[in-house]
């Protein structure tokens, strides 16, 4: 068994016995090894079902509206603890409502990176090695070959907010957090437009899985559901797809914690998180802002600075050079 | 493209820029008839969805204008707006989508002349860029063709 799975089960049993929380929101074994399922674990016996979600990119806090009326514990890696911090700052959750067990994150894995995955019967993780059992043989991969793009770009794999923390080693913080964004920035504007249309706008079927999988997309009525005015049309017209993706990315500006839940949820595997990463990069470079690192500092758009960049704004003074 | 006359949707804040437009009018400053003005309470009322919707509906350009920093009727609305517009511009640039079609300005209620000047220059610039073909939504029978390369 995966050593993290073992640790999580042990901790879950202890928490439920000692009563720090009434329930635990955690991944349990699912229909296939790639699809662990989220469940609310309420008794120490049930804790045996918990698994470490090696291949599930879903951020468990996506279910936060459902755990509000019961004191719940969660296992929080870096991005999950940052999600929680943003939710608390946005006054959606109280810090006391959630018992946080920090987990130093070894990084999650991307099923798209495995060749011939349908045959796989069982998966095991042992530190740096990932074992796949197929009918005939056991294949071994290195963890870093299979890491999700999101985790490869993660700057804070260790939790920033927790009540207690499990022992273990986390991924080293990424030295190339914006590599995907920078690669695109090197292209000409036409080429970037082409990339955007080819890779995101045109294939997207607007299933809204990316919105639903995002813990911070919790608006009771999303702008895509409005009918007066109707911001986005009902068909897959590229202009509507374009508007959806730009506005969604913008709504996450200064809030997105780079958890990758949106990208992992996309049935077409579109690289839509790159848009969010671009905004994370700009927020960091221009406002030295990163989402969810503490509970005190205001959110990016909840504040301003007299010296914020404004050279793109036309004024009479600037025109006359005064 | 000598016959092309751009259409501009202008979101003007009630307290400064709308009054600036008014002053340009009452002082009989000529400027091109390209504007369709939407009066908003504050420049921070303008959302990216509003700007993109205007382009989707066929506008060739969008002008967003509010009070100068420090003059905002709501004290700091325009300073919050400034951050948002900065990020929006970065996002549009990133996906290669003609950020020149969107202009931001601070125009006070006393700058009628300047208002006329901004509209004139923006209109001239849009004449050069040409009609908005990338953002505009048209009913298509054919599958969508990428219009850029
Ligand atoms: S999950 Fe993928 S296909 Fe669905 S709306 Fe998002 S980007 Fe489009
Ligand atoms: S938009 Fe950001 S916070 Fe939301 S799921 Fe995607 S990566 Fe996570
Ligand atoms: S896309 Fe925007 S409006 Fe829709 S749920 Fe997310 S934040 Fe809310």
TrEMBL record, chain A:
<dbReference type="GO" id="GO:0051536">
    <property type="term" value="F:iron-sulfur cluster binding"/>
</dbReference>
<feature type="domain" description="4Fe-4S ferredoxin-type">
    <location>
        <begin position="247"/>
        <end position="277"/>
    </location>
</feature>
<keyword id="KW-0479">Metal-binding</keyword>
<dbReference type="InterPro" id="IPR017896">
    <property type="entry name" value="4Fe4S_Fe-S-bd"/>
</dbReference>
<dbReference type="Pfam" id="PF13183">
    <property type="entry name" value="Fer4_8"/>
</dbReference>
<keyword id="KW-0411">Iron-sulfur</keyword>
<protein>
    <recommendedName>
        <fullName>4Fe-4S ferredoxin-type domain-containing protein</fullName>
    </recommendedName>
</protein>
<dbReference type="InterPro" id="IPR009051">
    <property type="entry name" value="Helical_ferredxn"/>
</dbReference>
<keyword id="KW-0408">Iron</keyword>
<dbReference type="InterPro" id="IPR017900">
    <property type="entry name" value="4Fe4S_Fe_S_CS"/>
</dbReference>
<dbReference type="GO" id="GO:0046872">
    <property type="term" value="F:metal ion binding"/>
</dbReference>
Automatic annotation (TrEMBL), chain B:
<keyword id="KW-0479">Metal-binding</keyword>
<keyword id="KW-0560">Oxidoreductase</keyword>
<protein>
    <submittedName>
        <fullName>Methyl-viologen-reducing hydrogenase subunit delta</fullName>
    </submittedName>
</protein>
<dbReference type="GO" id="GO:0016491">
    <property type="term" value="F:oxidoreductase activity"/>
</dbReference>
<dbReference type="Pfam" id="PF02662">
    <property type="entry name" value="FlpD"/>
</dbReference>
<keyword id="KW-0408">Iron</keyword>
<keyword id="KW-0411">Iron-sulfur</keyword>
<dbReference type="GO" id="GO:0046872">
    <property type="term" value="F:metal ion binding"/>
</dbReference>
<feature type="domain" description="F420-non-reducing hydrogenase iron-sulfur subunit D">
    <location>
        <begin position="8"/>
        <end position="130"/>
    </location>
</feature>
<dbReference type="InterPro" id="IPR003813">
    <property type="entry name" value="MvhD/FlpD"/>
</dbReference>
<dbReference type="GO" id="GO:0051536">
    <property type="term" value="F:iron-sulfur cluster binding"/>
</dbReference>
